[in-house]
Structures are given as structure tokens and as C-alpha cells.
Amino acid sequence: MISPLQRFAKRFVQKLATGVLIAVLGLAACGLWLFWRDGGNFDATRRQFLAGLNNERQQAQAELVVLGQHMAEMQAELTQQQVRAQEAGRAITGLRDLQSTWERLFGDREQQRAYAEQLKRMEQAKHEAEVREVDLQQALVRAQWEKDGLEIELGRLDRRIHEAEAGRSRVVHYLMRAWDKARWYIAAVLGLYFLGPTLGKLLLFFGLARMIENGRPVQLAGEQVALPQVGEGRTSLEVVLWPGERLWVKEAFLHESDKGLRERTRVMLDWRVPFTCVVCGLFDLVEMRNTHAGPESRVTFAPDGDPSMELALVSVPEGGSFVLRPRFLKGVILDGDGRLEIRRHWRFFTWQSWITGQFRYFEFAGPCRLLVAGRHGVRIERLKDREGQEPPARRANQEAVIGFTPGLEYRPVRAGTFRAYFSDVNPLFDDLFAGPGLFLCERAAPKGKAVGARKSRTGRRGGVLKIFGI
């Protein structure tokens, strides 16, 4: 079994190798474009390239000379300001000596006022000199940094000029030119590749998700008096087919049946939604009808070759309904010749729809019985009002939700922890159901198998189907 450290090391090596590949392909593409633009005239291009390098060196050398002169001027001014501050300090000391207590009491008052004004001017001059001295010292430090940068740039240009004059292959020449042209673009692409997903997830989890949680929930109907009855999930399910009832079921889930049931082929579950039926495999169904007047018949359902799948029967009474994702539907039992009533709800103007990516909902109206299947089991969550407490609410993984009663308020809430979302164990949003009612969902995958893995597989099959409620 691979440890978490080994998985991290493997992913790191893979990302590093991909990053190197991105850089190499970027340089190669830019080099080929430069070669194509030059028309293959390597010698003329190399001479032009060498002339450009010499021009850059001359400009850098000129900037270094100008900077040196400016630094010398600032150093001379700094010395002047230091001398000025020292002279002002000595003048201030002398003026303060002349302002003794005896002179203030018995001396010439006009002279004392002149000393005070001169002292004030000297203090102002000293302050200005000290402020200017600090500014010059900071400017000299910045200029020294700039000088160091120019000297480093000159050294780099000297090396490149030497390499260009010594002669090199076309491949190296165009790779070096490509590096000059595209290095910052490649650095930006690599930064987005390595840091973009993490920064994006941080922004979504701590920013957008907080705002979405407070959006208006989806509620497809008011509170229902007659709620569906749901049996416990089983790997094999036996159902009674009463006289006059019809069964439409996918052949892969029909295990055995009593003798005497009239059978034929049902081309499509409902011709009003042919695209949904084709995508969900609800076509070419087995239709069975109990035509006996007296005894009931029994039919056994079981998944074909998938031991991890469980089946459950949802009995929707007359006047009730159940919102169901058709991909979980495997069979329908109807009474008599009644038509299967499927109500379609579109929701375009809610945050919930745009975030979850689901704009259509299928509501199956009773009376009917729905055979549903879920991998790793089917879990029933019943929400009931309790006196003196807040309305009941419970969350579930988006990809695991099978169906719910339409009276429930249905909204997205942020995943429980950032770690689960970041490691793709959980999607960004879970579904929160509030109010009296019930909903069905698949059980958690055993032995730590991430629900996110199922999400990625579903996405590869076509995540766009979720828009249509499938």
C-alpha cells in the first residue's frame, strides 16, 4: 500500500516533470518561431544579434557612468550637509552660552532678542541639514544597489558577447534568443501551473463559497401530506406485482420472475424525454404485466455482475411525488394502464443552479413505485420536525444524492474542511436539505475510496449532462 508521503512524492515528481516539459516546449516553440521569422539566414541574424548585445552593453556602460557621477555629486553634497550641521551645532552652543541667567535678567534686552532669533535660525538650519543628510544617505544606498545591478548586467552581457563572438550552433543561438524573448512568459505560465490551482481553490473556498451559502434555496413544491415509502437497500430485492400492475425494468436488473406474467419490449420509458432515456439506458426495457385476476406475482431484482450495488424501492402514493435523477432509476411499477407522470422543473435564476451546474429536475408523481440503485448501498435520510427545535437540516455529498421529496429546501453549502476539498476527497459544495421530508443518497465509498474519484469518472463521461438533471 502506498503511503501518503509516497503519493505526495509521486505527485511532486510528476508536476516537476510536467513543468520542465512546459518550459522546454515553450522555448522550442519560441525558437522555431524566431528561426521562421529570420528566414533561415543564421549568419546575418547572429551579426544582428551581436550588434544588439553590444548596443545594450554601451547603454548599460553609459548608465553606469552617469550613475557614478550622480553618486559623486550626492557624496559631495552629503559632506557639505555634514559640515553645515556641525557649524550650526557649534553656533548653537555659543549662542546658548551667551544666554546666561545674569544676561537674561540684567543684560541688553534687544541683544537677547537678537540672540534668540539667531539661535532659532541656527536650529532650523541644523534640522534641515540633518534631514537632507538622511535623505542623501538613503539615496546613496539605492544608487549603490542600482550600480551593483548594472555591473551584474554588464558582466552578463560581456559573457554573452564572448559566447556570440566565439561562435555557437544554430540550436543554442535560437534557444538563447528564445530565452530572452519568452522567459517571463514561461515563468508566468509555470507559476500558474504550480500555484494557480491552489490559489484558485483558496479563493473559491474562503471567498465565493461563503457568499453562495447564503443564496436562495430551491424548493420545487410545498410541504406534502403523503410522503413516499422507501424500503431498505438490498443487493437482491423481491417485489410483489399485483393484478393489473405493469413493470418496466432494465433487463440487466431482472433476476427472476413468476411464471404467467405477460412480457414484451418497452422501447422507451417515456417518449417525452427521449434524450434522457437514451443517456440513462432507459430504453429497450422489459415490460411485464400481471394479467391474473387473483394471486399476486413476484419478481426478483438484482444487479448483474456488480456486487457493490444495492437496490431500493420507492413507493410514491397518490398525491405524492419524488424528485429523482434518472441515472439512478432502473425500473418503474405502475397501476393499470395509467401513464407515468414526469414533471420537469427548470431553474435558471438561482445561485444554487449555477453553482451546482444542475438546471433541470425530474419529479415523478404517484401513484407509482420506483426501483433505484446506488453503488455501495442506498442510505435513507428522514427529516422530521421536532417541537421546540429548529427545522431539521442535513447535508450530503452532491454526487451521491439520488433523489428527494420536492417539499425540501435544497441549497449548496461549503465542504466541511478545506483539506478534503483541496485533496479532491470532497467537492467544493455539499447539498443541504432542510425541512420535513426525506432524501436518498449513495453510501460513502468503503476503505477511504474518495467520492471525488467517482466525480472525476462522471466528469469524463460527460459532466454537461448534469445541466439537464441527469
Topology overview:
Elements: H1 4-38, H2 42-98, H3 101-106, H4 109-166, H5 170-212, E1 229-230, E2 237-241, E3 245-249, E4 254-257, E5 262-268, H6 274-279, E6 283-289, E7 297-301, E8 309-316, E9 321-324, E10 329-335, E11 342-346, H7 351-356, E12 360-365, E13 368-375, E14 378-383, E15 393-397, E16 401-404, E17 409-414, H8 418-422, E18 429-434, E19 437-442, H9 451-462
Antiparallel strand pairs: 1-8, 2-7, 3-6, 3-10, 4-7, 5-6, 8-13, 9-12, 9-16, 10-13, 11-12, 14-19, 15-18, 16-19, 17-18
How many helices? The count is 9
Give the low-pLDDT segments. 445-460
Number of domains: 2
What would you call the structural class?
A: alpha+beta
The level-1 CATH class of the largest domain: Alpha Beta
What spatial order of strands do you see in the largest sheet? 1-8-13-10-3-6-5
Tell me the CATH topology of the largest domain: Double-stranded beta-helix
Instruction: Let me know the CATH homologous superfamily of the largest domain.
Output: Mitochondrial biogenesis AIM24
Distance between the termini: 36 Å
What do these coordinates show?
The protein is 49% helix and 23% strand. It has 470 residues and is α+β, with helices and mostly antiparallel strands. The strands form four sheets. Strands 1-8-13-10-3-6-5 form a seven-stranded antiparallel beta sheet. A six-stranded antiparallel beta sheet has the order 11-12-9-16-19-14, with no helix packed on it. A three-stranded antiparallel beta sheet has the order 2-7-4, with no helix packed on it. Helix 1 crosses helix 5 (170-212). The longest helix is centred in the first third of the chain and has 58 residues, at 109-166. The two termini are 36 Å apart. 22% of the residues are buried. Mean pLDDT is 83; it is low at 445-460.
